[in-house]
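hey m, so remember when u said the tokens were messed up on ur end? i reran from scratch. heres the input so u can diff it against urs
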Amino acid sequence: MALSEQELIRREKLGKLRALGINPYPAAEFKVTHKTSEVKKQFEGGKAVVMAGRLMSRRIQGKASFAELQDSEGRLQLYFNRDEICAADDATLYNEVYKKLLDIGDLIGVEGTLFKTQVGEMTLLVKKFSLLSKSLRPLPLPKEDAEGNVYDGFKDPELRYRQRYVDLVVNPQVKETFIKRTKITNTIRSFFNERAYLEVETPILQAIPGGAAARPFITHHNALNIPLYLRIANELYLKRLIVGGFDGVYEFAKDFRNEGMDRTHNPEFTVMELYVAYKDYFWMMNMTEQLLERVAIESNGTTVLQVGDKTIDFKAPYPRVPILEAIKTHTGHNVSEMNEEELRVTAKSLGIEVDETMGVGKLIDEIFGECCEHHYVQPTFITDYPKEMSPLTKEHRSNERLTERFELMVNGKELANAYSELNDPIDQRERFEGQLKLSEKGDDEAMFIDQDFLRALEYGMPPTSGIGIGIDRLTMLMTNNSSIQEVLFFPQMRPEKPALNLNDDEKLLIDLIEKASGSMALGELKEASGLSGKKWDKTTKNLSKEGLIRVEKNDDGLWVHLAN
């Protein structure tokens, strides 16, 4: 591993600290009495405090120094004075350890008393300090010019997501998103616990991935010698518990779907699913309105939220719009009586890509998603989905072609999905068999038949309503974030490419090609490089081997291009 100059210097300091008898990674507990937020809220001059955190800045002025300590709740100014810290005859602790061997990013413990500077800055006069952990990599801290302009901040999204631990240190405002996420889940828990619903856990590794139409991740269990799937939904297990006699159960579930990634999708995501016996989807709509109104107030203090350039109000009640009406309103097409082929033709006329694997349900879903979804910015219940789209949903009480299902749309995206749950085991078996036919046509998102779940239904499941709410998307709304990666501590990323150790000749060629906008005539490049024939051959061969350049022939001769 190649180390930068700063990293080498920090490792040298590590050795010097050890030579002085200082353990840079002590094991003993460091007892903290106060956090920065406590100090600032209840400031008391002369009060003795013990604090710990990361050293974030220093201004050394001879035998005195001002510094900044950052803990989990904020920052506080520190004042180091050699005469306060050191004995009269030995200034090593200040002159050597503090001034020369500590670095920005080091974790330290400090003891001292509080005071205010002449300009009123709350400050800790340090009387004793301890090194708790030596930082071997410099933090990518933003710089500030004389006019107060901040630049070189740690803002690159890919770096922030890969190194969230650094992001949280140098962009402490990011913490607020995740603190609010916990408030959201705690509010939901409180809301359900008040109603005596039971929080449960169900299997993540499943023999049959059921409860949703999605492509699963597959693995293999060696001891049983069977394939297992990471769950795509926990629905069927929660319904088994309703069969078992619980009136209300819920779970914050990690689900996994082997699908595309974008600003609103991550292959691993969190869904809250709730099932309540003796209820229907009308009751669930009313409950959902109450829940989300409370979540908005608890997390933001108001139901009116700014989301991007839109203002969204979570105050109940929310409009209810049947999906076929929505399609007719926004496309002009009445799809309610169309068969599969007619739907395929209609979708194509609307500029939607379709294929032969798509059945009636998938086609209607695509039409709604492409042509209607984005219109529903304010919370809106889209209701009464066709039966082909909802294989786990009870048939509509007044139209046998429809089901008692709703999706809650907010800001043009689905936030929740809910049903009057299908509890007729014969109807459920027929719906599953319909999904099997879709699978045979090539639909890799069609549902599996779960024979054990059908057996559970045959013992009798009471009328039940269920809902799934995407916690990641809900957090995005409540924190005004447009990307799901911003509300996940560690979003899924492509593997990090290892850093290449290029020699000076290789770097020279890459720089020359970059300055020429990524392409350069081979002869021109060779001349500009000034490399001997032997060095030229070796350098170009190595760069080609690493996949950094490619040589192509065109009408103008041989050209060297930077590889994409």
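this time it looks ok to me. The mean pLDDT is 92. if urs says something different then somethings off w ur setup not the seq
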